[in-house]
Each structure stands twice: as C-alpha cells, then as structure tokens.
C-alpha cells in the first residue's frame, strides 16, 4: 500500500525566527495526522528546523541541492551538508528551478541519483506549462520528464522516490487542475513507470499533486486513485491551513 505524503514547500519565505514559531504550531497538528508530513524551509532555516522537529512525525526536506558532492561550486549546498544536519528529503526539479536557473532533466537526474546514493528521499517535480497543455502536448512532456529525470534509476530505488506532478500554470496562480485533470496525468505517470520498470514498481511509487492545493480542494484530489499526496506552496506557510491539509481526512 502506497504511503500518503503531504509536503509543504516554504520557498523563499520565513526567517529562522518565523520558522521556529510556525514549527511550534505545526508539531501538535502533525501528531494527529495520518499522512507522512514533510516541510521544506529555506536553507538558512534548515539547521534550526531539523533540530526542532527531531523525534516528531515531521520530516524536513531541502528545496534543492547541488548535483555534485563537494568542490569549488560557490553558492551551492552539498548533499553531505544536508545529511549532516538531519535533512531527510530534497525537492528536485521544481519548475521555478527549471525556469529561473535553467535546470534540465539531465541535471535533475544527476541530483536524484546523488540523493538516493546518500539515502535522501527525492521529491521529483514534473509538470507542463499552459502553452504545452493548451497545445495538447502535456502528456508527452510529462513522459519525457519522467523518462529523462529517472534515467538509470534502479527498480530497487524507485519506491524511495516521490514524484510530484505540478502543472506550471497552477503554481501560485490560484488555478488548480480539476480532480479529473490531475488524475489523468497521475495515471499516465504510473503507466510510464510500468513501462520503464514493472507494474509492481509503478504501484509502489507515491505521486503527489501540487499547484494551489488548499483545504477546500484537497479532499477531491486525494480521493482519486492515483493521487497519493500533495506538494503545497502558499497554504503551507500558515499553521491553520497546513494543519487542515495534513488532517484533511479527520
């Protein structure tokens, strides 16, 4: 049975002191949750947040990492550094990284392999632009991202990978894919995984939906057979809304 995972991507929000207040409010809410809870603070807040949640149900993810372990790469953060402070997961291939920093499927593939090598959970983001959706190319784009991003990732490692389908046109826009639109893509991703690996491997992979997820639409999305969780942006920045999401079935 696949695990349900709801992750909060704080993006470039919350100072370390603000993060401390938010985590204090989230800890009792997460204790009641039936899903796996992950939060992804900014890099400067990671050390204090990992210390604060230690021993709780909350796991901490980084929002990115370098494709190599160490070296003369100014401004980057190593997987070794993340492991050292207790980070357990990492968001990779987010559309904002692709759009603003030129990350390709090939670059993200190297990061996924490195994360798995060091026992970090990769949360691999895929998604189409509005132009690609309206042009009818979205399933082909998603398939390409899945195949290239997971190139040479073994069948043994795949159940450790979380895939997050985030249509670019729904991120931070207030627009959200309908349950049917999201389910169509999630089912397609699982079919692609079955062709790359096997049906049993495909059935073991958690696939999240992301893009303007909130307490009002989460139940419809989570009711779909191939949607196993959510990667949440704005609604993860307040304890009440994120608490409602991680306890959506209560």
Automatic annotation (TrEMBL):
UniProt protein name: Triosephosphate isomerase
Pathway note: Carbohydrate biosynthesis; gluconeogenesis; Carbohydrate degradation; glycolysis; D-glyceraldehyde 3-phosphate from glycerone phosphate: step 1/1
PANTHER family: TRIOSEPHOSPHATE ISOMERASE
EC nos: 5.3.1.1
An annotated GO cellular component: cytosol
EC top class, as a word: isomerase
Function: Involved in the gluconeogenesis. Catalyzes stereospecifically the conversion of dihydroxyacetone phosphate (DHAP) to D-glyceraldehyde-3-phosphate (G3P).
UniProt superkingdom: Bacteria
Active site: 94, 166
Molecular function via GO: triose-phosphate isomerase activity
Keywords, sorted A to Z: Cytoplasm, Gluconeogenesis, Glycolysis, Isomerase
Family of the protein in this entry: Belongs to the triosephosphate isomerase family.
Pfam families listed in its UniProt record: TIM
GO BP of this protein: gluconeogenesis; glyceraldehyde-3-phosphate biosynthetic process; glycerol catabolic process; glycolytic process
SUPFAM superfamilies with a match to the protein in the record: Triosephosphate isomerase (TIM)
Binding site for substrate: 9-11, 172, 212, 233-234
Assembly and binders: Homodimer.
Localization per record: Cytoplasm
Reaction(s) this enzyme catalyzes, per UniProt: D-glyceraldehyde 3-phosphate = dihydroxyacetone phosphate
